[in-house]
Amino acid sequence: MASVQFLDPPITENHYSGPGSGLDQSECVIDIRNLSLVFETNDGSVHALSNIELAINRGEFVSFIGPSGCGKTTLMRVVADLETPTSGTVLVNGMTPKQARIARSYGYVFQAAALFPWRTIEDNIALPLEVMGYSRADRQARVEQNLELVNLSGFGKKYPWQLSGGMQQRASIARALSFDPQMLLMDEPFGALDEIVRDHLNEQLLKLWAATKKTVIFVTHSIPEAVFLSTKIVVMSPRPGRIHEIIDCDLGSERPLEIRETDAFLKIAQRVREGLRLGHMDEV
Ligand SMILES: Nc1ncnc2c1ncn2[C@@H]1O[C@H](COP(=O)(O)OP(=O)(O)OP(=O)(O)O)[C@@H](O)[C@H]1O
Ligand SMILES: [Mg+2]
Known about the structure:
The chain is about 35% helix and about 25% strand. The chain is of the alpha/beta class. Strands 5-6-7-3-8-9 form a 6-stranded mixed beta sheet, with helices on both faces. Helix 4 packs across helix 5. The chain is globular. Magnesium ion binds next to helix 1.
């Protein structure tokens, strides 16, 4: 399966509203109210999300954390118009998720890089642009620009299997960014990578976020990763998936890896851990 939603016809209208567009950066780009989602299955109903209330401002980095099955992916898929809520409202950039998808408001990065092995890295990154009808020159320029953003300049002619897992995941981020979406939705993008590579990619992602001012929604199981990256951490609890707590992560924008040893960092990590623990207890 491809990592980016690019199955719609090319857009003709420019919906870009990010940095430099003159729009208010403190504007709410995701507004979720009283959202519930029940999956009807052959074995009965699965109440995946209940009473979700969430507002995300432009340029924020928001992590969803919570136990397996608490609905993190489902919530992200609702924002991306890949699932339809049973009740409640969702606005993405003031539009319905469907309108936002057609307006190409976001790029989606999955856990596995999901690059096509028969295409070079640059052809993988260019794929959404091909589908959207960008000219060859535009495609080339955007591929170069995004390879540079993820520190892969010079690797465009390689095939995915010639790259390490971390490099492949960076290529899939470049693909999600290729059409300059205002938002990046990332579902455990670094979950399968070892600790050192993950640290390195966390640092790079922070730099990329600072450079592009994208709004990022990021799913993770790692408390340190969530605290290191986020401006806001959404702690979720299971059965049915609810938001247990939203924790502000005000560590500033300069975050070297060593920040993880500071009191401020450890204090927030402790709050997240406690939130996860209490959220679990809601269940019993
Ligand atoms: N298409 C579906 N049909 C039926 N049930 C589903 C479907 N997708 C998800 N679920 C159920 O909804 C709940 C939430 O699933 P979801 O994948 O959102 O969890 P998650 O928090 O992302 O978990 P993980 O951390 O393991 O990825 C689970 O109970 C799951 O079994
Ligand atoms: Mg998931």
